[in-house]
Amino acid sequence: RTANRWDPDILVGYEIQKSSWGYLLERGSQLRLDLASMLSRVPQSPEEHPREAGDPEGDAVLDRDVVVPGRIVLNLWRIMRKEVTLNIYTFENVYYHVVHRRVPLYSFKVLTEWFAHDTDLWRTVEHYVIRARGNLELLDRLDVVGKTSEMARIFGIQFFEVLSRGSQFRVESMMLRLARQRGLVALSPSVQQRARMRAMEFIPLVMEPQSHLYTSPVAVLDFQSLYPSVMIAHNYCFSTCLGRLDHFGSGEPFVFGCSSLSVPVTLLNILREYISVSPAGVAFVQSSVRRGVLPQMLEEILNTRLMVKQSMKECKDDKVLRKVLDARQLGLKLISNVTYGYTAASFSGRMPCVELADSIVSKGRETLERAIKTVEATSRWGGQVIYGDTDSMFVLLQGKTKEQAFQIGQEIAEVVTAQNPKPIKLKFEKVYLPCVLQTKKRYVGFSYESPDQTEPTYDAKGIETVRRDTCPAVSKLLEKSLRLLFAAGEVAPVKNYLKLQFSKMLSEQVNLQDFIFAKEFRGLSGYKPGACVPALEIARRMVRKDPRLEPRVGERVPYVVVYGSPGLRLIQLVRHPLEVLSDPSLRLNVHYYVTRAVGPALNRVLGLVGQDALQWYGELPRPASGTAGVVRGRGGPNTIGRYLVCQLCPACGAQSPREGLCPSCKADPGFAALALGDRVHRVQAALHDIQQICQSCMGFRGSECISTDCPILYKKARVTYEAKQARAWHNTNSTAQARGFASHH
């Protein structure tokens, strides 16, 4: 009734398969109610409801979406995966990073108990109202509807197709409109025709970098929209291609892309003076004979984008118009960047053409190679190209100052741009000082974008500080180490910092949240039989607990690695963060994290300066070996796990030869009682402060929140455990004192 009353165009849910609209439709089917038909604007449709729509281009990472005919159904979780870059895409984490406010999370059991209770029912209702409003707030903050609408207008496709279809669909939508004006029809090759097409022969130029720590300036130069510019400058298109030179002269039909082409000898003689040949040996007519469809489309797109960006500068006060214009320029940028991919998609492409794709890549490669030769042949610059990747190059200016680097970089850009036809343009991007080149597509440095910039920007590409396949501790330790290395220019501060952090890890003075891995789940059937994958193991445990807890395909599953008894496989040491929080005996496997995650990442950088972080870790004194906690083997009985625990006196904090008070505190029971009482007071005060924070977030006193994305949850678990320990030691000491006093009398 609500849907029919308001008649919405869009139905939104954060995750619409296992909850939200999907759960509602599933419950309806259990009660034999066709809710999808009731929600639909086409209630008499003969199609079955609910219907699922998959991505025609086969995006295996995503599941399928529920479709309600006549209305757009948005799965907000999927949209957020493209809009923001995070380790975990739970509603709570996304909402915090977009809106900058925390929201609580409760288990279904707690929500059910509240809903069944007369006085607590409002809590469940409020929980879902907050999430429903949060979905709308996410849409508004990221302007999802506005951006999608503008892209739909630009591409000439439907609103939902912007979200569900791939880049080829967008390119073809724009290309066919131009082709139709010229009376041209696009080819529709079959799967067999695509399979018979010859393989591509050219790849972009990606140089092997000279891996090193560079303390001299490194200028970074980048060709603006290289492939679109090449297509415009040299008139590369399906409609202007005459085929390979090997086939000229015979006059017979020859293989061309997925089809065939015949070029009469008489026509070649007429066009002899108007043909350009790509480095791939493919001939194209010049624009004076025929302007290609793709070059015309790309030129209009790039010119329009420049006009839109200029309009944005002139309407700084009109935020609504600025949002619309920003969405338009973004859509134009995206379509220009993926046009080459349309010609090269030989496996799943709609209309691939290997001759055209090879020509674009080979010309781009030739352009970059010519720029590199120009730099190294000009002695007055004193530059050496240490890395090049597709459309960019890194020029080492040995012994130059930052100001000289900017001057030389600008001069290089002007000279190389003048060598190439318009609109090919080399842009001077920035100067790295200093920087580290690891391998292909992996580098990091302090970047400056203008000579007047005094504070550098930390800029990393491809290394662990920006990758999401490791835990936050690796990223934080590596970034801090790099900053120290770049700022000091020597290894000593890095060594001191890392040894301090390793010591904290060994003494367990760390935040559990920093050691959570989050890997994408490929589905229960997406792994080989017997695969030992942590995300799969955690997912199986969740399904055994509740089938509806199965993660979606593409969802990031969090886990940590704990200590276990000798003989247990690593997969048996994997735990969900909530398991570790609820069981204080489970402790982080520090040795695993240092030797398998943190150490290798650090050594990929430190190895370039002849240092070894794992050697520094090995030099540290180890805490005494103790026995504590229960680690459960998978499917087996409980086993006692031995791992490193630090034996400190609970009163004074000094090293103790055994568990309990140290000899000096035992000799002075009055001091021990005072110290333990003070410890209890401090821990309880800290726990009270944390509970106040939770109360301000939840709106009531309680400890039901289980949001693993909130750092307060981990602080609360740690302080609660410390409070129990402090009270236990205080009570034990008080009892011992009472006994001693009684025996004395």
From TrEMBL:
GO terms for biological process: DNA repair; DNA replication; translesion synthesis. Its main location: nucleus. Its EC number is 2.7.7.7. InterPro entries: DNA-dir_DNA_pol_B (IPR006172), DNA-dir_DNA_pol_B_CS (IPR017964), DNA-dir_DNA_pol_B_multi_dom (IPR006134), DNA/RNA_pol_sf (IPR043502), DNA_pol_B_thumb (IPR042087), DNA_pol_palm_dom_sf (IPR023211), PolZ_Rev3 (IPR030559), RNaseH-like_sf (IPR012337). It is an enzyme of class 2 (transferase). Its cofactor is [4Fe-4S] cluster. This is DNA polymerase. The keyword DNA damage applies. Pfam families: DNA_pol_B, zf-C4pol. GO terms for molecular function: 4 iron, 4 sulfur cluster binding; DNA binding; DNA-directed DNA polymerase activity; nucleotide binding; zinc ion binding. Residues 159-604 form the DNA-directed DNA polymerase family B multifunctional domain. Residues 649-716 form the C4-type zinc-finger of DNA polymerase delta domain. PROSITE patterns: DNA_POLYMERASE_B (PS00116). It is found in: Nucleus. SUPFAM superfamilies: DNA/RNA polymerases, Ribonuclease H-like. Belongs to the DNA polymerase type-B family. It catalyses: DNA(n) + a 2'-deoxyribonucleoside 5'-triphosphate = DNA(n+1) + diphosphate. GO terms for cellular component: nucleus; zeta DNA polymerase complex. Keywords: 4Fe-4S, DNA damage, DNA repair, DNA replication, DNA-binding, DNA-directed DNA polymerase, Iron, Iron-sulfur, Metal-binding, Nucleotidyltransferase, Nucleus, Transferase, Zinc, Zinc-finger.
